[in-house]
Amino acid sequence: MNRGLAFVVSAPSGAGKGTVLKEVLASAPGLMLSVSHTTRAPRPGEADGVDYHFTTPSQFQALIGRGDFLEWAEVHGNMYGTSRQAVEKLLAEGIDVILEIDVQGAAQVVRRMNPSPVTIFLIPPSPVEMERRLRGRATEDDGILALRLKNAAAEMRVMADYEYLVVNDSVDDAVRQVVAIIYAERAKNRRLLSGAPAPLWGL
Predict the structure, then answer these.
(1) Are the beta carbons of 109 and 99 closer than 8 angstroms?
(2) What does the pLDDT look like over 105-133, one tens digit per residue?
(3) Nearest to 150 by CA among 77, 82, 79
(4) SS3 letters across the chain
(5) CA-to-CA distance for 11 and 100, rounded, in angstroms?
(6) pLDDT cut 70: percent of the chain above it
(7) Based on the number of CB atoms within 10 Å of its own CB, is 142 exposed (0-12), middle (13-18) or buried (19 or more)?
(8) Looking at the domain assignment, is residue 179 inside a domain?
(9) Could you read off the pLDDT of 156-194 as tens digits, one per residue?
(10) Do the domain assignments include residue 25?
(11) The domain containing residue 172 runs over which residues?
């Protein structure tokens, strides 16, 4: 059985990452989303163990102390982390895994995973659209919204570190692009594992 591939997907707030990844997961068989731990409160409609593993700050610190996280970071005043054991178990079973994490966590994962994950950065079409989407959520007060916009500007400065950039102007187009990346990386991985030389096309 071939080992699964890890895909890191990062995006500033308002990029529509959750919506895109939901459709990607429905479109690409053999793919699962890593469920992160977080200290933030659940949003309406979110379920523990499905959207996140919701934990208290003291529980989160205990997990850090045991070295249970592949990556962890503080984002907008809340803690987020990815279980090392959960990800490794899926990869060992040949399942491809999406890690939906911020730029801090992505940098940690790239350093710690071997082979390195495939990295994808998703952005909204414009700053104006990003703010419109955030205000449309109506889930945060103006102070948190201002913090998200400030952090988004900082996150955009590191998007050149990612292998792929996808602009979410249309959800359908963004989904197609991410799915195409996944299938291309799967094909590349199969070719590398086979040990077959690249065709010379008569040259």
Answers:
(1) yes
(2) 999 999 999 999 999 999 988 766 666 76
(3) 77
(4) CCCCCEEEEECCCCCCHHHHHHHHHHHCCCEEECCCEECCCCCCCCCECCCEEECCHHHHHHHHHCCCEEEEEEECCEEEEEEHHHHHHHHHCCCEEEEECCHHHHHHHHHHCCCCCEEEEEECCCHHHHHHHHHHHCCCCHHHHHHHHHHHHHHHCCHHHCCEEEECCCHHHHHHHHHHHHHHHHHHHHHHHHCCCCCCCCC
(5) 9
(6) 87
(7) exposed
(8) yes
(9) 888 899 999 999 999 999 999 999 999 999 999 887 776
(10) yes
(11) 6-193
Pairing type for strands 53-54 and 37-38 reads parallel
Sheet of 6-10, strand order:
31-33, 96-100, 6-10, 118-123, 164-167
- Checking if the pLDDT of 201 tops 50, the result is no
Return mean pLDDT, the chain.
Answer: 87
Q: Which residue has the tokens 């570190």?
A: 161
pLDDT digits (tens, 9 = 90+) for 3-13: 999 999 999 87
CATH of the domain at 134: 3.40.50.300
Structural domain includes residue 203: no
Number of domains in the chain: 1
pLDDT confidence of 138, banded at 50, 70, 90?
low
CA distances in angstroms from 59 to 17, 102, 116, listed in the order given: 27, 21, 29
Residue 31, domain member (yes or no):
yes
Residue 79 tokens read as: 């803690």
